[in-house]
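Narrative progress, year one. The postdoctoral researcher (J.K.) led the effort to move from monomer predictions toward full complexes, under supervision of the PI. The following entry was the first complex the group processed end to end, covering 1776 residues in total.
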Amino acid sequence: MSMLTTIVFLPLAAMLLCWVAPARLARVINVVACSAVMVLAVVLWIQLDPALSGYQFVQTASWLPGVVSEQGIQYYVGLDGIGLALVLLTAFVSLTAAIASWNVEKQVRGYHMMFLLLLTGMLGVFVALDLFLFYVFWEVMLLPMYFLIGIWGGPRRQYAAIKFFLYTLFGSVLLLAGVILVVLKTGSWSIPEITELAKAAVASGGDGGILGSASLCLAAFIGMFIGFAVKIPSFPFHTWLPDAHVEAPTPISMILAGVLLKMGGYGLIRVAYPFFPQAAVDCGAVISVLSAIAIVYGAFVAMAQTDFKRMIAYSSVSHMGFVTLGLAAGTETAINGAMYMMLAHGTISAMLFMIVGVIYERAHHREIARFGGLAWVMPKYFVFASIAFFASLGLPGGSGFVAEITTFVGAFDGPHRLWAIVSLLGVVITAAYYLRTLQRVYLLETPEVYKDTSAYPDLSVREWVVLAPLALVTIYMGILPATVMDIYKSVVHETLVPLLSAAGSRFGG
Amino acid sequence: MFDDWLLHLCLIVLAAPLAGFCVQYVWGRRLGAAGAWLTCVTMFLSLACSVLLGVAALSAGAGFDVHLGPWSWLEPGDGAAWNIGIRLDGLTVVMLVVVTLVSFLVHVFSTRYMEGDAKYPLFFAWLQMFSFSMLVLVLADNLLHLFMGWELVGLCSYKLIGFWSEKPAPCLAARKAFITTRIGDLGMMIALCAIGTWVGSFEFDAVFAAAAAGEIPDPWLLIAGLGLFLAAAGKSAQLPLHVWLPDAMEGPTPVSALIHAATMVAAGVYLVGRCAPMLTPDVLVVVATVGAVTALVAGLIALAQNDIKRVLAYSTVSQLGYMFLGLGVGAWHAGLFHLTTHAFFKALMFLGSGSVIHGCHHEQDMRRMGGLRRKMPITAWTFLIGVLAIAGVPWITSGFFSKDGILSGAYGVSPVLFWIGLGGAVLTAFYMMRLYVLTFEGEPRDAHVHDHAHESPRAMTVPLLILAALTLIIGPLAWHEILLAPPTSVDPAAAWGTLQTLAQEHHHAGVVMWLAIAAGVGGLALGWLVFHIRRGSLEALKRPFAGLERVFAEKFWFDELYAAVLLRPADALARGLRRVDEGVVDGLVNAAGRSGVRAGEASGAHDRRVVDGLVRLVGHVCQGLGGALSALQSGRVRLYLSLSVGLLALALLLEHLL
Amino acid sequence: MTLVAALSIQPFLYLSAALFCAGLIAVLSRRNAVAILIGIELMLNAANINLVAFDRFRVQVGDAPVIDGQLFALLVLAIAAAEAAVALALILNVFDTRDRIDVDELDLLKG
Amino acid sequence: MDWSPLIPAVELTIGILAVIVLDLLARGRHPWLTTSVALLALAGAAVSACVQPTSGLDGGAETLLGVLQLDRFSVVFTVFCCVTGFVTILATVRGEAFPTPGGEFLVLVLSAVLGMNVLAMSVDLVALYLAFETVSIAGYVLVAMRRADPRGNEAGVKYVLFGGVSSAVMLYGLSLVVGFAGGTSLEALSRAIEAGHVTGQPLWTVACVMVFAGFAFKISAVPFHFWAPDVYAGAPASVAGFLAVASKAAGFVALIRVVGATRMGVVPEASDPLTTFLPDGGVLISLIAVAAILTMTVGNLAALRQRELKRLLAWSSIAHAGYLLLLLAVWSEGALAALLFYLVAYLFMNLAAFLIAGIVIRERGTGDIEALRGMGRRNVGLSLALAVLLFSLTGLPPFFGFAAKLQLFYAVFERGFVWLGVIGLLNGVVSLYYYARVLGVLWFQEAEDAPVLRLSRADALLCAVLVVPVLGLGLFWWGAWDWARDVARDLPLVMGVR
């Protein structure tokens, strides 16, 4: 059995194990499974040859032969740099989240089973190379998420869960429509094959694309884009995010922000853009505008939030705007930056949500206005908080800086320069709201309430173990970005960029 | 071989404070005073190495320009290579020495000044971090690398201004500083984008070459230049971004001395000096004008301040203005030399003020001081030297040489700027003398303060003496042709044409010099006269200028203006957008909610808000239709039948029509 | 040449249409379940008239007379009877519980 | 002459008689006896339907007296209905319906199945109508089985009146069709149309619309859906399931035959997918297309507001009828296969859903959704089963419902009707909302007082038998799909022509 299959289904096996094992062992199983996944991911990292742009560790197995095409739907998994980067991210964030879940009390077994199922779904999405398989994993991941928010969430959990579910399904069906169209016209379920076809179509110079009609391509692309944009979530499909985050339990927020949002970007990079380069280029302007809006608007809305967690949720909206901005620009630098932003944001936002969780556990509220002076009560906690904040607002030494500067330079290079400049504003606003929050929550006089150290102890071991690795990775990614970017650079260089530039050049971008 | 030497020295220069930071940050509490002295040692180490580098530079002779590295940092694609590397030339070396020296002295000074503070170790940790970041900035051989140091010093400045962040004022000041400079950084980012786009490498020489070769298309070279200057203006507190610096005085005085007088604020000047070759004439005009205006305006504001540190802060702003003026008019050399001299005498005066504040138990209001010279002679005399230097008293003080250079440069280029500068010079001398007199001369105005005042301990006075000495002796270095030698690629002629060379000749002869001297000495004398001899009739003298004084005291209402034009609107916008976001087109939604049948109990409250805004509208419509449909489902079988048959007939009709 | 032969099919169709409409109107207008049933019967018989008429007036294919139309009509009668029987049974059933058979009162089930 | 096609029918008839006789003799003392006989009859019918040789592939399938045609299509549906009847009987015996279902109940189920069996085979309007009515009449009585229950009675009356009217309308339509066809056999009709007798005849339009009314009633499609919610709500859950699955399926079979015969079935593929909205295949097809959209939308929207489990399922089954109609509207071989495939998925999902509804009603005494409160904690197995079913009904992977939907929409897109497909897909989103609400009550809402449901082993077993395929076929549906395609290939899109 290949590595990938192992890594994907290992959590599933662990889930079944949880089912039979006594409930008190569930969390142990979860952590062990996540660590195992992490180890496997690292092994993959070591073994994967970054020079090759093609898929590695490929495993195919006949699954539903004859559906549409001769070969039909396959069990077809493989990994390239982009996938690997995100698998690493998933494994890492999930591990920290699993540790963060250590103190879940309600329906422990169910919780950890759902958690593991979710993990399988996420990993599956990143390794699936068959459209059907991709879609199945994509949806499978919704179900546990729905329950995790709905059962273990906050007071308005049912509303948040249904909202999350509805939104994402809305996106998914548009995605499905696109998938059906693609499969219908190309007669293949295999993502690499279809990508090749798209290459050929662009090369051939006809404007038909893989669907044989430009307008159809455009429609399909828009459908798919919306499908993924809901996940990212890019303006104006973002309103599910704050509620989902606010209601979800801390570890789930970490995963939600750390991994789930990335699946949208991944979908764009792996499916929407390669399949419809022409349409993508044509939509570039619109997408850039949306991204610029997301960045600035998200930052502004975050600035006005009174709820700590909501604030951070909106900062996610703002930061994920860089991903679409970079993709829309279509230059190699920009796309690399967008990818990097996904990884950076994955770790940073996970950290931020953990930080909110830490204080929420102690104070049982998230009202920014009611906090103050926590730095003097919980100095260690404050250290991590400031690392996360400054990394997120793009200070050098943190991963956010690399992502932002790369995306900016790349996007500036692209056809939609104006919007790159507009989105620069986001940087200042981001600084503004982070510093304001930092001051209101951690600085100034400590209110009497928070002074008693028994109710407000500094970080527990569990929290240390969660936060420290995240912080280290964040800083590492800020200081030695090349080591991370090399994972996926060649793929972007050899698959995505040629397509887009070819498509762009033909119609003058 | 030689390069390896340099490399190792540079690495020590960088590593020492970084190590100091880590140690202090992690074990600071345990180390206590020892930790503080340890940081002094690390600083001294990097000072020593910097000096060695300086010696190396001198021995290497003219045209000393060494590149270490570059080491690949990131290759973001499109064949671009973003490296980090070290560039050693006269400018770098001088900056290195200045930074490490002042930093070292400030460390020593702080060991006593900060005594008894709850966060004593943290203070030194951040001082170390700052020194490190500043050195990174100075050593950088490319813009991106420089930008990282640039942002990091911003962080340290934030941390140190807000060192006492239990109190609101320091918090706000710190935030203001960070965000204001961040606004400036937008310019830098645009410049980076432009360079990254058309040059692909941020390495200075590559960029200059590209700029010279016109590889950067027309508007963007100008924009990039302006962007760089915007960033510089942010860091160096030039109009209109100067507002943060005075507030930054909320930080501990040593910080003000190190960061907000000697080094960080000078980074802007350094940046413009470094990038001078890529600045188009138009940009230089802007630089010079902004500098001159800032020099004047800040001077005027300084006149009416009573907080000893604020006066110094505004004088800093105005001196920085001089530096930009110098760079702008092509008196590149003089500008950067002024940076150097200013670093020493302003650090001297800040530490002096610190000593005063320390001696007076944290009293900062000059109106409650006076006659302190007898109480703290060393502080007073050293301070006086600083005053003389900043006023540019000829031949004995370094300030004279640099300022004179700048003025003559200006004179050679544009009389207007020259006269503005001269006016600024008079003001400087005048208010510095005011400061000195109010603080040290005359009879004490507050018995309590005066009685408890005492000379500061040696750890604080020694740095003062050293700085005073330096202030006096570095003047002759003024025209050293290796240190601070203009980068080869600067072509002043390009900037202001032949006038520039004229300026070079004029620099210390002729009318300009005498005017400058007159301005300095005259200002001092006037100040002495007004505030010391005739102080009895001071009020009478002031009366005609009451209106003006108000304007100056209110700092031209810059803060109020920004609050009204930027901050409040931004907040309002944010709140507005939030409202928009939480219920996009709420009106529509509610309308739909009303028109549609109300959601059933089962579906509960959340049905009415299935999803936000427009999406929620869809939810409402669905709910409404659903309600309507189940309302049709009245249970009346005849109604059903009529509906069915009716619809069938309708279908028939349509079939027939279509 | 019988009388029928002289006639065209139209009158039969008009008759059946009229009958059908009558039945429909009865169904839609009457509140009494039994009346509705009667309406239904009318409609069914309208259909029967059609069937028979068509059968009669169809151009004979081949020599053997195909009578499936009439057959159909007969079966319809049977079915109509069965249906009526069941319906009446059910209506009676309701009548037991509440001694009216006004269909408009049957609204336990709605929404 | 080969009478073998009648074997299942005969078996069923024997079963009916046997049950009657036994019931008389045993006077309901040994309900298990009659029940097992009935089950036996159904099983036998199913088996013999499977084993008997089918004609078909060779085009002009042989017919019995030109009235009944035996092809794999009809076989499949016979089996389909037998299975449904089987489950229904079991569910009723254990379900909430009545203490012990008397013989009459069994007789009615059997005769309904008999009717469906004939309906599936009939290629003649007479037979078709006969079978149709047999099914209906049996259904009327089944609904009102519980004589003491006013709701049941009311449902029965509504059902019979509504059914009577619609069948009368249909019959009138049929009579006109006969007129056009000059014969009652579908071949005749097909020939007549081929000869162009109907072209440009307004009366033909009338006929089509009226005939469609009858089918619309059977499959509860707009605008003849009104009866469904009330009747399902009034009837025992198991019976509701029977109506929702079996008689709907029967309706579709008949509809397929008729559409096939009217030869307007050959729908031209949409040339420009983005501008074509409705298939253009003559009166009947466009009627069906419109009805399909209306049906799924109305069903889903109305379901949003339901508070009772059976009503909710009723509306959702209406919506599913809409999806199925979509397939008839695009009318291609793939579409027929998908229809078959979807019906199979539909069978499992709905029978199971109604079964669980029945159990809940039996235990809690109310079919209100609120009755599920807190079940997630107590009856984990049942709740999981329900979750699977509802997700599958929504059409989420990895469940059977998704595979079916995928094939369904694939067929629609294949013919180039992108918009029809998108509307259908979006309808799926709407449907998620009410299914998810049920799950929300089931899992997210705490109820300390709610007791555990008593779940007999047989209930559990039946549930499992129905739910496992929903899981298994969700991931490995290749076999089922392949089979569906074969069967569909047997069925000529256009009667007589291959």
